[in-house]
Specification:
By secondary structure, the protein is of the alpha+beta class. The protein is built from ten helices and 23 strands. A hairpin with a 4-residue loop joins strand 2 and strand 3.
């Protein structure tokens, strides 16, 4: 594989070529197992790999990839990338700038594992999922139960014409359960540890075992049934408390995507829009209240967005994004950082595979914990709503106005969690919403949640990222009950 990378770099040369890099991704393994209503419904054990070559002239990029891992294919892809960069440069009015970055020579990164999920017997995994799924069926109203596991393993070799080189192997895994209860036209779902198939971590099968899916499935089924009899969530403006898993998705959609620098510049617009964040407002823009502190951390243990180096060879790093409510950082690549006048890249250029060029992507975007215990955060609320576990989401193409529905809600009465309410929906506008946050839970309420399906780009790319979040309190939020 290292020879293929060197072959591609040698071929990616010629008049006008200023830089080249090459990535070989050994067959990426993807495993998906699911049990629904007592039967195995999904079994995927797929492998795909390839080589990608990126070339830069003084005006433009060129990229080409191939699924054939051979010297001739490597040379052909490099030659095509050179031709594409030269052709693109003829339509560009000015020079292309990138940041200077520290180079790593023969670096290595690998996920620490106790049990590689791809070595665990399939029978053991299916038995675990079958036991968990069976425990969801607590009564006749539970019409569907699902228990699932997903895992990914990616081994990569990277080198650049600037002398950077590294290898990495990243393993990610997650699992969860979901129960759907039905009575007439009333349909309710409960998921655990979260929706989107559960929770995920860069780890081995030991993480799945720690989730104790069979042990928590009974309460998941019972809550789904209880929601059938729960009243609709009341409508009006109220104090809202977001559970950690729902707050993680809020951070993803209304902070993480909004501070991707290519969105801010408008060069990423087609797939899911741009950003409301103005260019050049670092250090001035008021994003939220003083209680809001957000970091992007590619060094966080266990995060799906954790790595040694990004797909430009820039080291993973921790960057402050929001400090005491003020925007102080963005997610950037070498090119977008240079365009903004930053000294270095944020190290967030990532590609889904060898057949895709790197984009600015989230790493692990965390809302830092505050100093309030769960009890202290609730005790100042005479009346409000607590919600958790996402059911639906919608956000405009500037990442500004949003609406989220959750699987479950509870009334807050005089600082105590009370009766269940069904189908809660809350809405707002980003900076106004974050400015209303006046209470943030402590470390005991904080959790790192994995998100396995973040989409961006044309052609589309899927990234896996994580978000750490505590519980948090927001004042005067519009809330209503769905159908």
């Amino acid at each position: 594989m290292e020879d293929l990378v060197r072959t591609a770099l040698t071929a990616a040369d010629g008049p006008g070529v200023r830089y080249a890099d090459a990535r070989v991704v050994a067959p990426l393994r993807m495993l998906h197992l699911a049990v629904q209503n007592g039967r195995a419904q999904a079994l995927t054990d797929a492998r795909e790999g390839g080589l990608g070559v990126r070339v830069r002239t003084d005006r433009a990029w060129g990229f080409a990839g191939t699924s054939e891992l051979s010297p001739s294919a490597a040379r052909a892809s490099a030659a095509l990338a050179v031709r594409l960069a030269r052709a693109a440069g003829r339509a560009v009015p000015g020079p292309l700038r990138v940041t200077d970055e520290a180079r790593v020579d023969r670096g290595r990164y690998a996920t620490g594992l106790e049990r590689d999920p791809f070595d665990v017997p399939r029978e053991e995994i299916v038995r675990l999922l079958t036991d968990a799924e069976a425990s969801l069926h607590v009564g006749r109203d539970v019409k569907s139960g699902v228990a699932s596991l997903q895992a990914w393993s990616e081994t990569k070799w990277f080198a650049s014409s600037e002398g950077a080189s590294y290898t990495s192997r990243i393993v990610q895994v997650g699992a969860g359960v979901s129960a759907t209860a039905v009575r007439g036209a009333n349909v309710q779902r409960r998921s655990a540890p979260s929706s989107f198939g559960g929770d995920y971590r860069q780890a081995g099968f030991e993480f799945v075992a720690s989730l104790d899916l069979p042990g928590r499935a009974d309460s998941v089924g019972r809550e789904a049934v209880a929601l059938l009899d729960a009243p609709a969530c009341p409508t009006g403006r109220t104090t809202l408390v977001l559970g950690s898993d729902q707050l993680a998705l809020q951070v993803h959609e209304s902070v993480g995507h909004a501070v991707e620098l290519d969105r801010i510049y408008g060069s990423e617009a087609g797939y899911a829009g741009t950003s409301w964040v103005p260019i050049g407002e670092l250090g001035r823009l008021r994003y939220g209240s003083d209680a809001m502190n957000v970091v992007a951390d590619a060094t966080e243990p266990g995060g799906l967005g954790t790595f040694g180096w990004d797909d430009e060879g820039t080291p993973g790093q921790r960057t402050s994004i929001v400090e005491r409510g003020t925007l102080v950082g963005v997610l950037s690549s070498r090119e977008s950082a240079a365009e903004l006048g930053l000294a270095r890249s944020g190290g967030t250029a990532r590609a889904e595979g060898a057949d895709r060029s790197p984009l600015v992507r989230m790493t692990n975007i965390d809302l830092l914990p505050g100093d309030l215990s769960r009890e202290e955060l609730l005790e100042e609320i005479p009346e409000g709503i607590y919600v958790e576990t996402n059911r639906s989401w919608s956000i405009d193409d500037r990442r500004l106005n949003f609406q989220f529905g959750t699987e479950i809600g509870r009334r807050i009465v005089h600082g105590e969690l009370g009766e269940l309410v069904r189908n809660p929906i809350y809405s707002g506008m980003g900076p106004e919403f974050w400015s209303s946050m006046d209470g943030v839970g402590d470390q005991a309420t904080w959790h790192l949640w994995g998100v396995p399906n973040c989409g961006k780009g044309q052609p589309g790319q899927i990234a896996r990222v994580s978000h750490g979040a505590p519980i948090a309190r927001f004042r005067n939020v519009a809330v209503r009950g769905g159908g």
